[in-house]
Amino acid sequence: MKTLNKNKFFESIRYSPHAGQSAVHNSNARFRIVVAGRRFGKSMLASRECMARLIVPNQIVWIVAPTYELTKKVFREVYWGYHKHIPRWIKKSSEAELKIELVNGSIVQCKSADNPVSLIGEGVHFLIIDEAARINEEVWTEALRPTLTDTEGEALLISTPYGMNWFHQLYIRGMDSKEIIYQSWKFPSGSNPILEPSEIKEAERTLPERVFRQEYLAEFISGAGVVFRNIHNCVKGISESYRRGQSYFMAVDLGRHRDYTVIVVVRQEEGHNHVVYFDRFNKIDWSFQRKRIKNASELFGNCRCIVDSTGVGDSVFEDLANDGVNTTPFRISSNQIKCNLIENLAIALENESISFPEIPQLINELQAFSYTTSEATGRTLYNAPSGSHDDCVIALALALRGAKASNGVFVSFAN
After folding, report:
1. What is the distance between the alpha carbons of residues 390 and 388, in angstroms, rounded to a whole number?
2. What pTM does this model have?
């Protein structure tokens, strides 16, 4: 393969990599594995490495990610990098088709790891695999790695960690000095010199510890993707009847279609919240659901009731108000609001500032609840696994929010 002076090329396109990025650019390893925290500069690193490789004639380069949507972040940096700095090199380009062909015969195109069939049968000279840790091992071993065999091609695998999976094993291999064709690096978010330290401190303050360690410190954590820890240490106590003088807060997650309606009542005492009442049901008429919600409220002194209003009409709350339920709607109208709810609950579980009796449905949902991070937007997305429910989790999270009160004075639920 024709050699290229990368540093000279980077100067020509006005790219000044920071120290961490330079270490990867300057490596001659065939397989480079980069473990990096959020906002390290992964996309810029990968895009500029891609641009440099394309300058070599007749190269087939793929940008691969878990989905087509995720390939766009790196591809757009390549696309606009060429159009802005060296448009004379472009023969054909299509941002819609995620493909660029240069006048020297080199081509870059995007591929989705969720369509393994499209990854078979073509020789590739250089692979960029973004968010590699979130790709199935079989996609790497059975589809992507074989594309590099005939061409003796190279790969740049770059990702935040995601458990002790095949990407972690590849990272360990690259840390072994005897593995000459592999080289690995680990860069926490703070390795980016232009990232304000206050941003990292804010993330550490507001995110659950394991999320911060994985997403910002770039640490491999067993069981990554799981949101709630320390669950079993919070299983204590029993259901309770109403006690005069105590503060109670009730939350309802209304079932829609196949989902369940879940009622949770918590008691707050000396900063600790305990679930005293739990009910879960589905496939019953709204009139009967109203009766069960009203009954639960009356059992605990007509306590304030927070109802998840996402996707339901105003008539629901009119009905509950007419029934005498002291209700307040709470609409999860954005991903950020949901993140705040879930992270507040995760921290409470870690701190053991919430407890509940042994309720199998609740415990199972807490254990299964997971998160992913969108590389395209950087947002954390919290959800139950496909085919599972999160009604208990949402109800508990809302009840915990409702417990933010002092001396029985209810706080605002404006969202």
Report:
1. 7
2. 0.60
